[in-house]
């Protein structure tokens, strides 16, 4: 394999170059104006709002796709510090953090649902032009951002890999031509009590070299009270630093280097028991006042070999990138983007959600990814724009899971499980996109991508099974004691006999596909653009790297197949002068279909999730957003109606405890026509603000916002206990700012209605011995009140 370092250096040595990302005022039509008025985006005034996720610099009003772009300063001032808090702002975007080795992102009610190292999200993430196939990487990207863009629907024709449902594009601020520096600080008083600071320095080092350095540190308490330990969880502590250099190497060549390092720690899990068949018996057995309901309290304590360990999630991540931009002619540009990312994760959690020394799981994950993209773009002739390019990427994943079930083992009860897995992927793709301006009113465009992905993986598991009350490990050998086809060995111990089951599976697969899109734009009058689009998407298959299954079952279910998507959109973008007011109104009708959807199902007995291909699903509905501005008054709104269902899912797993009367026959059910998890039917936001000019160079801006989401399932198996009821959140702030943008200070309140909202849930066998059956859920923070301020030098 070619050295990654050598390939990174080759990009500069070969003179390949990058797309210069413009330093525009980034915004969205549906914005959250918690920053001072002077730093607000210009959406309401009809000024240009630039989006780069489609590899063309287009304003939101000229983008023929459903897109939301949020300014970085607005996110920071509002306390939006990660993807989970971002998702609360954007209709038809959901985010969940299940236990295990992945996060879940949903667009229009569809996404890759479940947990485990086998998951690659269908909603892709891209940081400074570098895509990542692992969902947890985006947790560490919210530093000194120019904007965040969410593009709904398939984006694979010209962007990255595995963007069959959408793309989350995070764009950092770039080095500036003149010196500037800023310091931001915030303190939270209520839930998540703690502080964050961020500092930025940017400017020229010489006539042709510019640099930018940004760093942040966050230290907070959690929003879940642990009634067994007296601590809160999850308690985050994050440090992130990024350095960027821009070089002008002649009149036609520029090169950008970026390096980012992040070290994030989460102590404790935002997970609690929400249902037990016998809460009183559970509380008595646990020795704490466990109430088995969603109320921001848990009693989790993790143990390994009888020794207490912390519940924790540690992420250490790095990104290196080099982009180069070479103007071959005045009309054609050659772009090269070289990227390297890696991370190491340690995730330890109390699987039984109790203070007892049983059922603890520890995951260790190591990941490295290299990518190289080269593309040509520009103008072939008047009104004819093009993009053509190729992308190579590869990654290596190493995974280890240790599970300790050491509590009163009985006959046939697993005591310990150790699972290891490795996976290597290589992806080759070529793409092209053409845009023809047939007239000033009419534009047609289309794109195509060919992709080929080779993947290979191995996974092994060792289970210690106890036949009598002994704790001793047996050794694996070549004897099949029980006729199962497994390799095992019985040894005699003082306390009796035991054996260790050793099994492993491996596989190689190649997935190939062609995706394409087409788009028609019509501008009948100034300020109005209508469009119709069609796009297909592709998400590669994968492997079930973690399961507690037998060798025979694991071998037959090790690989799962790709999924494909088809998206149809009809939309309009409108900018209208209404007397002294400016109105922006955007709308999109869509239908998004998935074939062979990859779904995960819970197995609370083996404490693992297994991925299969469900059949077909679809989501259809309408999305709107807009704003009205008159003088210092501003009204913002956004909303979505979503109808997301499985259209064919014949052999879906039953949820725990499901009866024949509820549709469970032979352990499976027909879920065709049923709802999909994390797909609220109605959702929306509305906000108001007014700028009061105080004189003496200061402005006071009060702001209020309502968020509404309809009820939705949060469990992959649609257990009725997982339903999150509809809710309304109230957000408010008041900001005092200098008119010259030198400083601002704001008092910010989010979720002032103190709604406790679950994002992911599932069954657990932890409380079976105390009344039979239980259910858990992860939740978002309740009410938060913070003081935030910024000073620009």
Structure summary:
This protein has 5 helices and 50 strands. The protein is globular and about 70 Å long.
Based on the model shown, name its key terms.
single chain, 22-stranded antiparallel barrel, five-stranded mixed beta sheet, 5 helices, 56% strand, globular, disordered N terminus
Structural features, described:
With 793 residues, the chain is mainly beta. Helix content is 4%, strand content 56%. The chain contains five helices and 50 strands. The strands form eleven sheets. The protein has a 22-stranded antiparallel beta barrel. A hairpin with a 5-residue loop joins strand 29 and strand 30 (528-539). The chain is globular. The model is unreliable at 1-47, 408-413 and 466-499 (pLDDT under 50).
SS strand fraction: over 45%
Main β-sheet description: 22 strands, antiparallel, barrel
DSSP summary, beta strand count: 50
State the distance separating the first and last CA atoms.
Answer: 47 Å
Unreliable stretches, pLDDT < 50, 5 or more residues?
1-47, 408-413, 466-499
Q: Secondary-structure blueprint of this entry?
A:
Elements: H1 4-13, E1 50-51, E2 58-59, E3 67-71, H2 72-77, H3 83-87, E4 93-96, E5 104-107, E6 110-111, E7 123-127, E8 130-132, E9 145-152, E10 166-172, E11 180-188, E12 194-206, E13 209-220, E14 224-226, E15 232-233, E16 235-248, E17 253-267, E18 271-276, H4 279-286, E19 297-298, E20 302-304, E21 307-309, E22 312-327, E23 332-350, E24 360-381, E25 384-404, E26 413-437, E27 442-466, E28 490-493, E29 496-522, E30 528-539, E31 542-543, H5 551-556, E32 559-560, E33 563-578, E34 581-595, E35 598-603, E36 608-613, E37 616-630, E38 633-648, E39 652-653, E40 668-669, E41 682-690, E42 692-695, E43 698-709, E44 712-713, E45 723-724, E46 727-738, E47 743-750, E48 758-764, E49 774-779, E50 784-792
Parallel strand pairs: 7-10, 14-19
Antiparallel strand pairs: 1-2, 3-9, 4-5, 5-6, 7-8, 9-10, 11-12, 11-50, 12-13, 13-16, 14-15, 16-17, 17-22, 18-49, 20-21, 22-23, 23-24, 24-25, 25-26, 26-27, 27-29, 28-29, 29-30, 30-33, 31-32, 33-34, 34-37, 35-36, 37-38, 38-41, 39-40, 41-43, 42-43, 43-46, 44-45, 46-47, 47-50, 48-49
């Amino acid at each position: 394999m070619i050295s990654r370092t050598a390939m990174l250096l080759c990009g500069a040595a070969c003179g390949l170059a990058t797309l210069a990302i413009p330093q525009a005022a980034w915004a969205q039509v549906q914005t959250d104006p918690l920053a001072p008025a002077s730093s607000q985006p210009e959406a309401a005034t009809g000024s240009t709002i630039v989006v780069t996720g489609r590899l063309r610099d287009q304003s939101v009003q000229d983008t023929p796709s459903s897109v939301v772009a949020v300014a970085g300063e607005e996110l920071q001032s509002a306390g939006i510090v990660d993807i989970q808090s971002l998702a609360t702002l954007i209709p038809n975007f959901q985010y969940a953090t299940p236990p295990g080795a992945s996060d879940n992102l949903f667009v229009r009610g569809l996404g890759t649902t479940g947990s485990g190292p086998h998951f690659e999200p269908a909603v892709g993430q891209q940081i400074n032009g570098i895509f990542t196939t692992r969902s947890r990487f985006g947790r560490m990207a919210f530093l000194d951002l120019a904007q965040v863009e969410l593009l709904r629907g398939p984006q694979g024709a010209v962007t990255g890999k595995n963007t069959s449902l959408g793309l989350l594009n995070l764009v950092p601020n770039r080095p500036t031509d003149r010196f500037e520096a800023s310091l931001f600080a915030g303190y939270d008083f209520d839930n998540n009590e703690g502080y964050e600071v961020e500092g930025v320095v940017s400017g020229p080092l010489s006539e042709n070299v510019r640099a930018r350095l940004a760093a942040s540190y966050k230290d907070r308490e959690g929003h879940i009270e642990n009634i067994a330990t007296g601590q809160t969880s999850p308690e985050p502590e994050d440090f992130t630093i990024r350095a960027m250099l821009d070089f002008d190497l002649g009149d036609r060549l520029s090169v950008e280097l970026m390096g980012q390092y992040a070290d994030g720690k989460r102590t404790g899990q935002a997970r609690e028991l929400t249902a037990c068949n016998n809460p009183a018996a559970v509380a008595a057995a646990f020795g704490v006042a466990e109430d088995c309901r969603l109320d921001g309290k848990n009693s989790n304590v993790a143990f390994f070999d009888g020794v207490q360990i912390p519940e924790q999630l540690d992420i250490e991540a790095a990104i290196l990138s080099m982009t180069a931009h070479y103007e071959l002619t005045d009309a054609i540009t050659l772009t090269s983007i070289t990227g390297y990312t890696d991370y190491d994760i340690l995730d330890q959690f109390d699987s039984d959600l109790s203070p007892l020394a049983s059922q603890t799981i520890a995951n260790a994950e190591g990941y490295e990814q290299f990518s190289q993209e080269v593309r040509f773009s520009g103008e072939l002739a008047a009104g004819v724009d093009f993009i053509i390019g190729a992308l190579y990427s590869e990654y290596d994943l190493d995974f280890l899971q240790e599970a300790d079930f050491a509590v009163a083992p009985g006959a046939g009860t697993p005591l310990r499980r150790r699972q290891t897995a490795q996976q290597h992927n290589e992806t080759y793709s070529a793409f092209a996109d053409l845009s023809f301006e047939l007239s000033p009113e009419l534009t047609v465009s289309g794109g195509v991508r060919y992709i080929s992905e080779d993947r290979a993986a191995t996974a092994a598991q060792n289970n210690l099974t106890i036949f009598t009350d002994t704790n001793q490990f047996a050794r694996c050998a070549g004897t099949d004691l029980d006729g199962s086809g497994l390799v095992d060995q019985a040894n005699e111990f003082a306390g009796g006999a035991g054996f260790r089951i050793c099994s492993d599976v491996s596989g190689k697969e190649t997935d190939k596909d062609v995706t394409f899109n087409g788009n028609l734009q019509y501008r009948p009058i100034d300020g109005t653009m209508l469009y119709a689009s069609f796009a297909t998407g592709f998400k590669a298959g994968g492997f079930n790297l973690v399961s507690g299954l037998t060798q025979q079952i694991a071998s037959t279910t090790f690989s799962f197949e790709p999924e494909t998507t088809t998206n149809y959109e009809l939309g309009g973008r409108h900018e209208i002068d209404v007397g002294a007011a400016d109105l922006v109104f955007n709308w999109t009708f869509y239908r998004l279909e998935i074939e062979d959807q990859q779904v995960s199902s819970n197995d609370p007995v083996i404490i693992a999730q297994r991925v299969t291909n469900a059949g077909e699903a679809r989501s259809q509905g309408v999305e709107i957003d807009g704003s009205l501005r008159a003088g210092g008054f501003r009204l913002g709104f956004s909303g979505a109606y979503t109808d997301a269902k499985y259209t064919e899912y014949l052999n879906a797993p039953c949820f725990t405890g499901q009866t024949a009367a509820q549709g469970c026959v032979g352990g499976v059910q027909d879920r065709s026509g049923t709802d999909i998890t994390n797909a609220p039917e109605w959702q929306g936001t509305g906000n108001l603000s007014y700028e009061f000019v105080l004189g003496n160079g200061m402005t006071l801006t009060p702001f209020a916002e309502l968020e509404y989401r309809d009820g939705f399932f949060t469990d992959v198996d649609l257990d009725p206990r997982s339903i999150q009821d509809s809710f309304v959140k109230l957000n408010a702030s008041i900001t005092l700012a200098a008119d010259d943008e030198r400083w601002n200070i704001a008092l910010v309140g989010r979720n002032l209605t103190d709604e406790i909202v679950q994002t992911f849930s599932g069954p657990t066998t932890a409380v079976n011995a105390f009344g039979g059956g239980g259910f858990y859920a992860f939740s978002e923070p309740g009410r938060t009140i913070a003081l935030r301020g910024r000073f620009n030098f």
